[in-house]
C-alpha cells in the first residue's frame, strides 16, 4: 500500500510540474511551434546521413534500407519517449554543483518526480514524430510476412525500449550523484546508445554487441526483437525466445535503476551552499 501511495504521489507531482512547464512554453506559441519544427529537422539529419550512405551502397552490413529504417524508427521513437519524460535528468550534476538539488530534497514530493519533470520540454515531440514517420515507412516497405506476433512486437518494442532508455536515464542520474557531475558519461549511454541502435549489429564487433546485450541490454530495444520480425540471424546467436524478452528486460532495468537511484540519494552529501 505504501509503495502504491508513493507511486501515485510521484505521478501526481510529475504531472503538476510538467504541466507548469508546458503552460510556460505555450505562452509564446509561435516560438513553440518553430522550436518543435526545428527539433524535428535536426533529428531528421541522422536519417538523412543513412540515406546518403545508401545512395552509394545497396546494403549496410547485409541489411537493406527499409530494414535499417526499421531499426532507426524503433530506436528513435523509443528514445524520444524516454527523452520527453526523463530527458532533463542529465542536468542533475549542475543542480548538485550549485546546491539547488538540496531544495528538491526538502520539498514534499518525490525527488525523482521533481528531477524528471524539471524543464519538461514539449519540443522533444519533434524527435518522436520523426522517428514514428520513419518507422511507418519501414513497416510499409520491408518485405515481411506479417503475423499476429510480429505485428504485436512493434508496439512492444517501442514501449519496452522507452522503458529501457528511461532506466538508463535514471541510472545515469544516480551515477551523477556519486560522481557529483557526469552528464557527458550519461549522454554517452543515452544519446550514444540510440545512435548505436540505428545501425544493424552486423556492422559492429562482436565484443561491442555482447556488451550492449548482456552488460547494458540496449540490444533488446530493437536488435533482438527486430531480428525475429525481419527473419534475420539473432545477435551473437541468442535463442529465438529472446525476441519476446524485451518487456522482462525493461522491468529488470527499471528495478535496478530504482535501486541505484535510492542508493544515490542515501549517499548524497549536501554541498552546504
From TrEMBL:
| Bilayer-crossing regions | 32-57, 69-87, 128-146, 152-175, 208-229, 241-261
Report the InterPro entries cross-referenced here: ABC-2_transporter-like
Q: Give the signal peptide range.
A: none
Q: Which Pfam families match?
A: ABC2_membrane_6 (PF06182)
Give the record's keywords alphabetically: Membrane, Transmembrane, Transmembrane helix
Name of the protein in question = ABC transporter permease
User: What organism is recorded for this protein?
Assistant: Streptomyces shaanxiensis
Amino acid at each position: 500500500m505504501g509503495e502504491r501511495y508513493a507511486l501515485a504521489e510521484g505521478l501526481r507531482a510529475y504531472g503538476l510540474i510538467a504541466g507548469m512547464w508546458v503552460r510556460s512554453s505555450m505562452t509564446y506559441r509561435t516560438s513553440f511551434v518553430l522550436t518543435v519544427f526545428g527539433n524535428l529537422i535536426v533529428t531528421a539529419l541522422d536519417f538523412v546521413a543513412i540515406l546518403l550512405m545508401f545512395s552509394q551502397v545497396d546494403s549496410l552490413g547485409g541489411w537493406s534500407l527499409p530494414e535499417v529504417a526499421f531499426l532507426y524508427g524503433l530506436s528513435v521513437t523509443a528514445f524520444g519517449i524516454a527523452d520527453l519524460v526523463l530527458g532533463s535528468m542529465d542536468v542533475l550534476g549542475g543542480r548538485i554543483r550549485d546546491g539547488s538539488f538540496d531544495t528538491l530534497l526538502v520539498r514534499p514530493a518525490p525527488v525523482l518526480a521533481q528531477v524528471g519533470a524539471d524543464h519538461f520540454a514539449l519540443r522533444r515531440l519533434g524527435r518522436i514524430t520523426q522517428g514514428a514517420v520513419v518507422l511507418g515507412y519501414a513497416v510499409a516497405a520491408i518485405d515481411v510476412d506479417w503475423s499476429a506476433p510480429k505485428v504485436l512486437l512493434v508496439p512492444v518494442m517501442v514501449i519496452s525500449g522507452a522503458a529501457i532508455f528511461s532506466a538508463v536515464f535514471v541510472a545515469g542520474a544516480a551515477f551523477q550523484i556519486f560522481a557529483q557531475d557526469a552528464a557527458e558519461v550519461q549522454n554517452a549511454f543515452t544519446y550514444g546508445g540510440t545512435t548505436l541502435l540505428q545501425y544493424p549489429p552486423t556492422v559492429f564487433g562482436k565484443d561491442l554487441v555482447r556488451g550492449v546485450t548482456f552488460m547494458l541490454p540496449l540490444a533488446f530495444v530493437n536488435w533482438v526483437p527486430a531480428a525475429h520480425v525481419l527473419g534475420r540471424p539473432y545477435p551473437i546467436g541468442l535463442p529465438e525466445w529472446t525476441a519476446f524478452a524485451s518487456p522482462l528486460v525493461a522491468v529488470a532495468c527499471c528495478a535496478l535503476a530504482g535501486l541505484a537511484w535510492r542508493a544515490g540519494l542515501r549517499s548524497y552529501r549536501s554541498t552546504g551552499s
